[in-house]
């Protein structure tokens, strides 16, 4: 998912960019309203984080231009204007959420995730290749064979299946499944991935749980290597 950060103070913009990238999002940054509008009109963003006090225009004008698109992205206002009137005005003019500076990044990240979830119905059944996860009955099967998973194993697999093809960092997995901060030391994710692989992949030729070097893990059907061309028949000796 791609997020646009509209913030003229470089220190804050860099902080937001690094934090959101660390959470697995692609991030663009615009230092002023004109650049932000150009970005919004040329790129399909999943979310815009918008400061109101920009050097060239009021952030509400950027909000207005974002809302002029037929399918505009959700907008989270991030501003030092913390009066009730400011918050009400921002929300009334089309913002989806409003967070006052100074802020805790964990709260901002929670609001980002909540906005990105809106309007995206969660399917009851997830499938990748012959692996099926029934999210309502909390049942897993592969090639028609039932697989018993512990609650945390199921939580990790469901999260990976909902994000199939997307690399998920250990931090993202821990925060989603355990609802706690990842301290960078624990190997709890690696332990659970080994458990999952022993149940999901080990007995099958096609491995679905992939390691993404330097990032973490993802569920994806691996590319099938092209079959080698047949060797030419030996020429008949005359």
Main attributes of the structure:
single chain, 238 residues, alpha/beta, Rossmann fold, Arc Repressor Mutant, subunit A, 2 domains, four-stranded antiparallel sheet, 20% strand
Task: Explain how this protein is built.
- Helix 2 runs parallel beside helix 3 and helix 6 crosses helix 8.
- The C terminus is likely disordered.
- Strand 4, helix 4 and strand 5 form a beta-alpha-beta unit.
- This protein is α/β, with parallel strands linked by helices and 238 residues long.
- The longest helix is centred in the first third of the chain and has 13 residues.
- The protein folds into two domains: 116 residues, Response regulator (Rossmann fold), CATH 3.40.50; 95 residues, Winged helix-like DNA-binding domain superfamily/Winged helix DNA-binding domain (Arc Repressor Mutant, subunit A), CATH 1.10.10.
- It starts with a strand and ends in a 19-residue tail after the last strand.
- 24% of the residues are buried.
- Helices cover 37% and strands 20% of the residues.
- Strands 2-1-3-4-5 form a five-stranded parallel β-sheet, with helices on both faces. A four-stranded antiparallel β-sheet has the order 6-7-8-9, covered by helices on one side.
- The radius of gyration is 23 Å and the shape is elongated.
- The protein has eight helices and twelve strands.
Give a topology summary:
Elements: E1 2-6, H1 10-22, E2 26-30, H2 33-42, E3 47-50, H3 59-67, E4 75-79, H4 84-92, E5 97-100, H5 105-117, E6 125-128, E7 131-134, E8 139-142, E9 145-147, H6 151-162, E10 168-169, H7 170-177, H8 188-200, E11 209-212, E12 216-219
């Amino acid at each position: 998912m791609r997020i646009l950060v509209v913030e003229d103070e470089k220190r804050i913009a860099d902080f937001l960019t690094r934090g959101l990238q660390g959470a697995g999002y692609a991030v663009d940054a615009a230092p002023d309203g004109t650049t932000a509008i150009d970005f919004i009109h040329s790129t399909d963003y999943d979310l815009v984080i918008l400061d109101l006090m920009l050097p060239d225009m009021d952030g509400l004008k950027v909000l207005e231009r974002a809302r002029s698109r037929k399918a505009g992205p959700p907008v989270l206002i991030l501003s030092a204007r913390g009066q009730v009137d400011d918050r009400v005005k921002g929300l009334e003019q089309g913002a989806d959420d409003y967070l006052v500076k100074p802020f805790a990044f964990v709260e901002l990240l929670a609001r980002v995730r909540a906005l990105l979830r809106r309007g995206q119905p969660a399917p009851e059944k997830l499938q990748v290749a012959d692996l099926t996860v029934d999210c309502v009955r909390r049942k897993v099967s592969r090639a028609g064979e039932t697989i018993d998973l512990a609650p945390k194993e199921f939580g990790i697999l469901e999260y990976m299946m909902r994000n199939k093809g997307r690399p998920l960092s250990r931090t993202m997995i821990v925060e989603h499944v355990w609802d706690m901060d990842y301290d960078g030391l624990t190997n709890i994710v690696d332990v659970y991935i080994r458990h999952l692989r022993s149940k999901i992949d080990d007995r099958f030729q096609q491995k679905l749980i992939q390691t993404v070097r330097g990032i973490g893990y993802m569920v994806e059907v691996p590319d099938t290597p092209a079959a080698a061309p047949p060797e030419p028949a030996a020429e008949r000796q005359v």
